[in-house]
Recover the amino acids of this structure.
């Protein structure tokens, strides 16, 4: 199935960890300050980038080449995929922290006879 140097271990690892990465990005995008349309766009961009990187790694393995012995076109596809996924991840992470909210002024609290006493 594979050539002399080809191994599916790297392609297998890249695919499984890609699923984990995209799931974490989806959770962070949902919890952050990104509008839902922008979050969906960032996740689609990250998915396309990861698909390109995964495709390059898998094609190299099925061609019977060692993981670092890819041809120039596959290196370009791999680099484009990694850069695209990384850029989308950076944009999601930049907006991942929830917006700081100041508590809304509520009704005044009920005063108790012991409020304000320090115990001295």
């Amino acid at each position: 199935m594979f050539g002399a140097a080809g191994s599916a271990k790297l392609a297998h690892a890249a695919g499984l960890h890609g699923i984990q990465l995209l799931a974490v990005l989806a959770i962070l995008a949902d919890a952050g300050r990104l509008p839902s349309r922008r979050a969906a766009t960032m996740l689609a961009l990250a998915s396309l980038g990861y698909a390109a990187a995964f495709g390059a790694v898998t094609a190299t393995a099925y061609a019977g080449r060692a993981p670092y012995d890819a041809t120039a076109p596959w290196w370009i596809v791999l680099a484009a995929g990694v850069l695209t996924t990384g850029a989308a991840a950076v944009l999601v992470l930049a907006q991942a922290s929830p917006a700081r909210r100041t508590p809304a002024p509520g009704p005044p609290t009920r005063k108790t006879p012991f409020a304000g006493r320090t115990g001295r």
